[in-house]
Design goal:
By secondary structure, this protein is of the alpha+beta class. It has two domains: 148 residues, Rossmann fold; 166 residues, no CATH class. It has eight helices and 14 strands. The strands form four sheets. The chain has a five-stranded antiparallel sheet with strand order 2-1-4-5-6, with helices on one face. A four-stranded parallel sheet has the order 3-14-13-7, with helices on both faces. A hairpin with a 2-residue loop joins strand 11 and strand 12. The longest helix has 19 residues. The relative contact order is 0.14.
């Protein structure tokens, strides 16, 4: 689900802005970086995008972060630019899907009578005469298309208040165990969250699922031809290890590539898990336990690893196919990220990220 354009007028400190997202010739979007001084309205731009995406999810699924019929972004005349009498926003996605919002300083009937103003935009007449605001979208008119676009890739928002407790801050973090994920398989349940907060535990559980699937479904055992092993007495059949090949292995290998960058290391590293009585995800190096619990990474390492794991996990839960990191950088949807340190490490994946500083 690609964002194509967002327009804001008289919103907060913003007079008027229209951002048209750029796309490559093959239809894949280019990255967008919002840069501005404090108080210039960057977070308000992103808030409108997140609000629109959550509105789309409310139409397609029941497990939304915001109650159906409610909105994520607070609507109030206090967000109308000082000296103006109204604010307007329009968010356009691919597939001709849109969200539009009006906010007035007074009821529409009083507004027109006192200010002698009537917008040429067709939505103006849909604002009830006794109302101050109006919010509308066409997601409900194209529910199947909305659901399909939501499922085509990764949609995540990492808010500025995202937080993971470091291991040294809370002893409980050192004793947390990984559990297999219990996904709900019902028609209107996505098992995905657009707003990514406190996600390290969920990502640890997902890693455990990934390790299990890799060893159950991707492990290949071959059998040598008995004709090659004849003896004077009987034929002997011998099995041999054929490696891991499959969807889970593709994701797992990509995580290891990311882990090497985050931990600034090379060599043979992999994930492991303690016994079922103390199920922790560990990091092995040269087949020796190197990091006994991924909760014990530094704060910076935790943020970096958790960011990428959240993206991979959400993409894995979508209906898109994953073979390598290129699938995400070429096909995935927008990632909304604020105030991220060491952003140079995002380069392998940031073709489709909207992030602001």
């Amino acid at each position: 689900m690609y964002l194509q354009r967002i327009s804001l007028e008289n919103v907060g400190p913003i007079d008027k802005v229209e951002i048209n997202l750029s796309f490559h010739a093959n239809g894949c979007p280019k990255p967008c970086l919002l840069v501005g001084e404090n108080g210039s309205g960057k977070s308000l731009v992103v808030a409108h995008i997140v609000n629109a995406l959550l509105s789309a999810k409310q139409v397609a699924y029941d497990d939304t972060e915001v109650e159906k019929g409610k909105v994520y972004k607070y609507r109030s005349p206090t967000y109308i630019k000082s000296g103006s009498s109204f604010s307007y926003s329009e968010t356009i996605f691919d597939g001709d899907l849109w969200v539009k919002e009006w906010q007035l300083l007074s009821k529409r009937s009083d507004f027109e009578e006192n200010l002698k103003y009537c917008s040429i935009r067709p939505e103006w007449m849909q604002i009830p005469e006794t109302e101050f605001s109006y919010f509308d979208s066409n997601f409900h008119l194209q529910e199947e298309k909305t659901k399909k676009l939501l499922n085509q890739g990764c949609l995540l928002y990492f808010p500025v208040n995202r937080f993971e407790e470091p291991a040294w801050l809370n002893y409980d973090n050192l004793t947390l165990r990984a559990d297999y994920t219990d996904l709900k398989r019902t028609e209107r349940f996505s098992n995905r969250q657009l707003i990514s907060l406190f996600s390290l535990k969920r990502n640890q559980n997902w890693l455990l699922d990934l390790l299990l699937d890799r060893n159950i479904y991707d492990l290949h055992i071959g059998k040598l031809n008995p004709e090659l092993l004849k003896t004077d007495f009987k034929e002997i059949g011998i099995n041999f290890f054929g490696g891991w090949h499959g969807a889970s292995t593709n994701i797992y290998q990509s995580i290891l590539d990311i882990l090497k960058v985050v931990l600034r290391t090379e060599g043979n590293i992999r994930f492991g898990a303690n016994s079922r009585k103390d199920r922790r995800i560990v990091v092995m190096k040269d087949e020796q336990q190197w990091i006994p619990n991924i909760f014990q990474l530094s704060t910076g390492e935790t943020q970096l690893l958790n960011l990428f794991l959240s993206i991979l996990r959400d993409y894995d839960l979508s209906e898109a196919e994953f073979n390598s990191l290129e699938d995400i950088s070429v096909k995935s949807c927008h990632i909304l990220l604020s105030c991220f340190q060491k952003s140079s490490l995002l380069l392998p994946l940031t073709r489709h990220y909207l992030y602001w500083v």
